[in-house]
Design brief:
heterodimer, A: alpha+beta, B: three-stranded mixed β-sheet, 12 helices, globular
Chain lengths: ~375, ~400
Amino acid sequence: MDFSLNEEQNMLKDSVTKFVRDTYSYEERQKLVHSDIGFSKDHWQTFAELGWLCVPFSEEDGGIGGGPVENMLMMEELGKGLVVEPYFASVIFAGGLLASVASDEQKAELLAGIIEGQSLPTVAYAEAQAGYDLFDIKTTAKADADGYVVNGHKSFVMAGASATHFIVSARSAGDQRDESGISLVLVAADADGVSVKPCKSLDGHRVAEVTFDGAKGQLLGAEGEALPSLQSAVDDAMLALGAEVVGMMERLYKDTVEYTKTRKQFGVPIAVFQALQHRMVDMFTKQEQCKSLLLRAVLSRQQNNDSFNKDLAALKYAIGVQGQEVAHEAIQIFGGMGMTDEMSTGMYLKRINVINSLFGDADHHLARLVELS
Amino acid sequence: MDISLTPEDLAFRDEVRAFLDQNLNDEFRSLASGGPTNKDAQVRWQKLLHEKGWVAPNWPKEYGGTGWTATQKYIFNTELALAGAPAVSPFGLQMVGPVIYHFGSDEQKAKFLPPILSSDVWWCQGYSEPGSGSDLASLKTMAVRDGDHYVVNGQKIWTTYAQYADWIFCLVRTNKDVKQQEGISFLLIDMKTPGIEVRKIDSIDNQHTLNEVFFTDVKVPVENLIGEENKGWTYAKVLLTHERTAIAGVPQSKRVISKIKGIATKEMRGGKPLIENVSFRNKLAKVEVELMALEYTELRAVSALAAGGAPGPESSILKIRGTEIQQAVSELAVEACGYYAHVLKEDEYIGNDYAADFSMSYLYGRASTIYGGSNEVQKNIIAKMVLGL
């Protein structure tokens, strides 16, 4: 049994830590949030140069053959920095999905585009009526002479406004809630019939509603059989988000501990009050427990354990509930300062809440855990 | 023991309901539900209450109060909140007004009280400072007497709606050489006085509520001192311990719960409306149990007041439990709305017409356990005053 990282993994982790520490102060991050596109294309090129954009891809696909452990290391550190570049949406989620379903010709073009930093694909999977069910799809895809025609509306498309391509989950057969009959269609963002309504989310990221009105695209993978691949990409995505939350929880408890050492009331640092000490110990405990669930699920994925679905549901449940609890406590202990946008504390809470609402919230995954037990 | 209302109380309740039917519209309701603040509508609502003579139920009748019993005040607050009416801005009517009629001079009463009642003059509160939050008595903003005025220098923080205020009531230090609490005075300051600067604080809910207020050589006439110099702490404490109605927010929480139930019939989970989800219903039911308990805790305090006594130790938990329940309810509202709760409501935004507002009140509501004496400070007070520790 060995939880230590190998040399390459340590170097990868260190390179992200260094980038966040040297170039991604919270103040700089907020400048990016308020910029036109909401992130930095220069940073994105740096990501390409540092080799981060090829982490999840196999060596045949031009990557470094990273897996769940490498994704975890990246996302934990990016989470600490509240990084807004669409690494999660475009590289881990969309990139991971493309790597698993695209043909060799499609991969040669699309994955190369991602790795060079030129393509920013995103997955358009969510629909308003679906709740958290991936298979609940009204959007349709119909084959025609030179591709597929997509009609429908996607509700919460991450990094939607800056996307170059949409990977649309659409129904090519069956009824709205059938698990079969689902296809993935790649639609270029500038194709006719695509309209994007952009919006900011509270965590400083950008999202969009996207409407496809007779938009043409190409099929990815086998027609009507996309759900297992989509679910598998979502599973990897949830692992990555779990790592992001664990990284944020670490910063939340450490920042709180540091703040209480400097904030004086009644003539003493508030860190001396036992009532607060115990609460910070609880924050630390929750972070460590979530980190353990993260490692459990990541290693379970790596080893293809039968227990993976359960391990993943436990992780997503715990980061939803305990991530929010730790962030609430941090704000309370920071007092008025915790209510300001000047501190990153509130931003961690907002990011944790957004993540809780993606791919099923804590309640959804607790129910799933019950089903699997 | 009998919890039923008298025929007089029931008639009063009907009168309040009739007033609300006639006057409370959606524009006024939107002020209570976490939307952006609209001072103009807030003033119009308060003027309607004032015309009816109901804007200051807590004030003694001679100064413009209603002369209601404790039960009537409870009925009034409950009916307004259940109907979704906005709360009155507290700084004039509930904070500085009572200080002025208790401790102010006749000239001060005549000058300041009528425009508070008519909502023509708006106040904000200058208590907290960057280094003085829970430890308020350590405040450092100085007021130095110079002939017929004071010269004020220093900084206040977390000043809610300072950007709308005509006047600010401040605790200032007038003596540095005595015990902290004995060198504080209570000053009324015109916000138009040269040397005052208001700076916005960007807060996590993306609304402009909080401010910093800076004072640089601000000249304040001596006649704006309340009571005696260096007695300000006593006046402020009387205000804090003075009867504070509706602090538990029970009807407000009830109203949000009923909204959540409405939303949960529209939001879908697993192909069914969320309201059919057992886990979600259990969570709602648990918070409702807590609210049922708090409602009766408040009624026990009201009935003690109505009988002419002081509320018992049960009243000390109203702020703590009330704010905790408000937060729990707003968390459920956000949960019910799914990802659309987390979009920023600008001119153009995605989702529906209710989700983003819930997030704003959820995020701003994180402050409710911090302001007005943080819940940690409240627990210290209960440990000392109630449990005798």
